[in-house]
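Why do we care about 3D structure at all? Because function follows from shape, and shape follows, mostly, from sequence. That is the central idea of this module. The next example makes it concrete: a single protein chain, its amino acid sequence, and then its structure expressed as tokens.
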Amino acid sequence: MGTSATLSAMRDELPRVMLRADAGSSIGFGHFVRTSALAAYLRNDFRCVIASFNPDGLISDYQKNLVKDSGAEFLPLTAADIDTADAIFLNAIEKSDIVVLDNYYFSTSYQHSVREKAHALVCIDDVHDRHFVADAVMTFCPLSRSDFSLEPYTRFYGGMEWSFLREPFLQPRIARKANEIKKQPRVVMAIGGADPYRLTDRMIGLVTGVIPDVNLDVIAGPTVETCTPESDKLHIWRRMDANGMASIFDKADWGIFPASTVCVEAFSRGLPVAAGFYVDNQKEIYSYGVREGWFAPLGYLLDSPEQIALRLENAMESPALNKSPDFDFLARKKDIVEVFKSLQTEET
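And the structure:
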């Protein structure tokens, strides 16, 4: 038997984790990104399969590349609607599987259906607007068990350090001097892979208006529309992988992001951040981050341009742009793997 065949046979003998994270231009890619990062955490101890339904149609190359980088197998849930996708996923679950659900619309009833078929169920959630019957619930938001409706047996893991980060964001942070606000700062901005509100183009205009000499790097998804032409001081980066993002973060003085996973990735590189929010699931991490001084506050990003411009001006005077919070994501990675190992050996 050849080396590759031997490795494949060894992988087939590993316990399986089925990870479900739907994604598309209409619903964004954040859940899919962090689920792929989780699969990479687990790949030495588990055979990981990532399943995904794209409500916009075909699975994107971006998703396929994320799965490839994670070392997981891919199960596209090709279906006309989410109910059919749910049924296909249920049918793929085996009794020995640990199943991970990462999105905000998996009802209590669907959790019951999954848990009845699987060995254990893990839910990744930041909204906590339903009852959970999962064996474990994880959130990167600074929430406590009392914020969730859980079964007595459900394990709870919450806080920024329980984030799942891609490999480049687990590397040692670069040494940064205390940031001095410059007249010509290098700023990186990433509003979202889908950006249904066209905030990216709007924010480009606001940032370049408030800071005329800014060097602005914009990370945008392939379908994000921008009208502002690129120049020596404005670069728009599309189809950016984790290595590329980390490199841009390392060269920047500070970043502008929604209060989401991209903020956590910036923190991992020691990058000071100005953050806002524009959807409900970003509100809690935003409010907590402002209280803790993690980032300079930009507020609700769908407010008027005049309001956002004023907040940008104030952000440049914020102490938060002189530092970045320091979390030990690498140490927590080991804890996350141990959680899955214990679920696999536990009788449920």
